[in-house]
Amino acid sequence: MGTIRDRGIIKWQAALMLPEQKALHKKMGEVDYFQNKKPVLDEYQIEEYENNIHYAMEYHLPISFRLHNEGNPIELHGYCVYIDPVTKELSIQKKGGSFEKIKFNEIISVIVED
Known about the structure:
single chain, 5-stranded antiparallel sheet
């Protein structure tokens, strides 16, 4: 009678994996490891940010935003000129005169500059 030979973990590995696939799997692991995660904001922080934005719009004060952009935080300075409640976007006039739209869910922090 013959004995059953167990191949261990080899039986669960893919039979064929291209070098491009191995490189892609390795790259995906590295990107996730080094990428900063977006902080979770609670309801009170979101409400405070909304109040700061409305205050800055009412009195035409400069405002600074810290945004989460694909794992990299960026700073944006200017004046908030319009809030679109449907698309949840803000129109920001930068100090150079150009406009930029940002989504509200990208905001990490809001500071009103007096």
